[in-house]
Structures are given as C-alpha cells and as structure tokens.
Amino acid sequence: MASFSNPDEFGKQIIQINSPDGGIARISQYGAHVLSWVIPDGRECLFLSPNAEYRAGAAIRGGVPVIFPQFAGLGSLPKHGFARTQTWELARSTAESAVFWLSDSSDSLNIWPYHFLAEYTIRIGKSKLEMALSIINTDPAPFTFTAALHTYLRVPDIANTAVSGLEGTTYRDSANGGVEREEDSEQVIFEGEVDRIYLDTPSVLELVAGNMGPAGQLLSILSDGFRDTVIWNPGPEKCVQLGDMKPDGYREFVCVEAAAVGRQIRLAPGESWAGKQILSL
After folding, report:
1. CB of 251 within 8 A of CB of 142?
2. pLDDT of residue 210
3. 37 — alpha (psi -120 to 50), left (phi > 0) or beta?
4. What percent of the chain has pLDDT over 90?
5. What are the tens digits of pLDDT across the range 200-248?
6. Maximum distance among all alpha carbons in the chain?
7. What is the arithmetic mean of pLDDT over 2-9?
8. What pLDDT does 126 receive?
9. Catalytic residue from among 33, 119, 150, 252
10. How far, in whole angstroms, is CA 154 from its chain's centroid?
11. For 127-150, what is each residue's pLDDT tens digit?
12. How many Cβ atoms are within 10 Å of 278's Cβ, its own excluded?
C-alpha cells in the first residue's frame, strides 16, 4: 500500500508511492496534485514554487496540476477549470501507484452543469512517472471539454534547456495574440516568454537539460490520448508579475504539458476518454 505523510497546508492527506529502485512520488488529495517526483539518485525532477499559495480555491504553482474541463481561458469557465482546486477521493493504492476519483458536486454543477467521473492514476517505476487521466460522461446529455496535465519540469537553468521533437508542427503562439506558426527549429529554446499550444504533436518528445543525468541521457516525455502539447515558461518580465513565484523562478522550470486543446473532446452519455503522460529517464 501507499504510505501517508503529514497533511499538507490544506489539511489534506499526502500520499507517497515508491518504486522498487528507490524513486518517490508525493501526491496531495487537493487537486490530486503530484507535488514531487524524486528519482533513485535523489534528484527532484518536478518544480514546486517556494512561494506557491496554499488556500482554498487557489491552484498550487508547480508540480502537476490537472486541467479539466477547460484549458486556460478558452471558454466561459474559470481559468483552467476546477479539477485542480477540488479535493479528490483516494480510490485505491498500492506501494507503487495511487488512483484518485473526482465526480460532480453541487459546486461543480454551479460552474459546469454536467455529471461526470474523472479517474486519475499515478504510477511510479524505474526512473519513470506515469500519469493517466480518464473522463466518463455520467450525464444524460453529451458534453465537450478540454484538458491537460500541466507538468512543471525542474531544470538547472532555462537558458541551457531545450525541447526537441516538435519541428514541422503548427503552434498557436499565445504570448503573441494566438497567431498560428510552424515550428521550423529542431529544438524549442527559451529566450523570453514562451507560451505555445502545439497541435497534433508526436507521441514522444525529449527535454534536454543539464540535470538529466549522465552525458547523453535525456528526459523522454511520452503522451497517449492527448493530441497536443503545451510549452510554457513565463520569462523574466512575466515572472515578476506572478505573486506565487520568485522573481527569477522562471530559470528553474519549463512546462511540457500533455494536452487536448486544439479540438474539444465530445462525449455522449456513457462514453469515456483517456489520456496519459509518461516521464522517463
């Protein structure tokens, strides 16, 4: 079984799962939020802001927020929906995995008038973290949604960080009014704010950063079910405007998010959808 540590700042349980080789992941019931992923050699692979806010209704800055049923402000709901600020039920767990459930409530129905069940499975393996989200429509009417796993990856210096595998894909440049462009570089690098929704992306991307192990070792980012990828770093000017970040916090992370954003997912009553992201060294 998973183990439980002291409650977090919300008073919610923190669930810890462990891989046989010594890897550790810690998840809060608040948002089913993955707070930490430590690989066997002791390195933390996720970024969690030291200035993150811990109050009801606020999202935790860093880790892996679950975005559902709306990505960003692309709709009439609150930014990034409500899943990341709700308390999820721990449905079951083993030493190496934990499964969380979130279903409609009076609060969610006031925001989004549909019945649903979300199931989120976090599994840790040998230098690997797998996160799988599924949505079931339990409502008598069809509904549409967008979703993402807003993964903050820790890097030693954003100036020496790159994401490869996106050359030739189309992206919406959210930092520049949402204009669509084609990625013509082998690697996405970070010189100022980068906020892009890449559409219909390859299933495997790679993060090149100085803390990813011995020479030649990369962080592989695999997605399945999520058609798109969001790449985000606020850059220095935007970062100082974020109250839950250090002024230079942008240097320590990049978000590479498995996403379903370009086209809304439509579920008829009783239908389900599933997507996952696997991080591995």
Report:
1. no
2. 65
3. beta
4. 88
5. 999 999 999 865 554 445 899 999 999 999 999 999 999 999 999 999 9
6. 54
7. 65
8. 85
9. 150
10. 13
11. 999 999 999 999 999 999 999 999
12. 19
pLDDT tens track for 67-119 = 999 999 989 999 999 999 999 999 999 999 999 999 999 999 999 999 999 99
pLDDT 10s digits, 27-49: 999 999 999 999 999 999 999 99
Query: Could you confirm whether 206 is annotated as catalytic?
Result: no
Please name which of 33, 71, 83, 59 lies closest in space to residue 199, comparing C-alpha atoms. 71
What pTM does this model have?
0.95
Q: Where are the domains of the chain?
A: 3-157+226-280
3-state secondary structure string, the chain? CCEEECCCCCCCCEEEEECCCCCEEEEECECCEEEEEECCCCCECECECCCCCCCCCCCCCECECEEECCCCCCCCCCCCECHHHCECEEEEECCCEEEEEEECCHHHHHHCCCCEEEEEEEEEECCEEEEEEEEEECCCCCEEEEEEECCEEECCCHHHCEEECCCCCEEEEHHHCCEEEECCCCEECCCCCEEEEEECCCCEEEEECCCCCCCCCCEEEEEECCCEEEEEECHHHHHCCCCCCCCCHHHHEEEEEEEEEEEEEEECCCCEEEEEEEEEC
CA–CA separation, 78 vs 219, rounded Å?
Answer: 32
Note if 80 is an active site residue: no
Catalytic residue among 119, 183, 252, 257: 257
Phi/psi of residue 249, each to 5°?
Answer: -65, -25
Name 30's bridge partners.
87
Determine the CATH number of domain 3-157+226-280.
2.70.98.10
- The amino acid occupying position 201 is T
